[in-house]
């Protein structure tokens, strides 16, 4: 019975754009809880990228590998058009406009981090002999393959809102940085503050009252989709492991050679 539930059962419902309208219309059941959860989740999503460009500006090294920037750039660029279509087709519902604005902001963050990658981090990522033009070309190729592949995945999932796909962005942002820092072997380009944000992202994304479950319970509730919560436990474990890895790395100097203060 347990085996069948885990490996042969699928959510009976699906995620629809109407779910957002139903859950996020003032007066809906649990409206304030859902709205608060959505806003906190969005703020944490902005923070993971704010820390990225603050760290790379201050310490000349960022917290994420290059492919994460190109992946998120492609995903969020796709999201602009998904939410724009939803906004036009669902009577200009406010959340879809918020989604468009949020995705534009995220893409702007990602473009900025990619620019810093090809300038400040080019030698670290590509080595001594790669030109700026070649580094930019490599980034464009990565964004292209991610964009077409993620659109294929979205279509195959019949994910009209990107809500199913979005959760994988949460898994990646919480699990990959610690592995990256472990390989890199330094605290430069990362911080305790970012570690705390990543743990909070995992908790907010996968607790029983997460944004996904509040908006589309027929697809994301524990009873309908236990794998979602198994993934959440593993994701939280990776986020906490990232804290452990960071704690083991050599201490940062308080000041960099150019006199800039490092970020705690």
TrEMBL record:
TM regions (residue ranges): 31-54, 66-87, 93-115, 135-153, 165-182, 194-215, 227-247
Signal peptide (residue range): none
Record keywords, A-Z: Membrane, Transmembrane, Transmembrane helix
Domain of life from the UniProt record: Bacteria
Name assigned to this protein: ABC transporter permease
Organism taxonomic ancestry: Bacteria, Bacillati, Bacillota, Bacilli, Lactobacillales
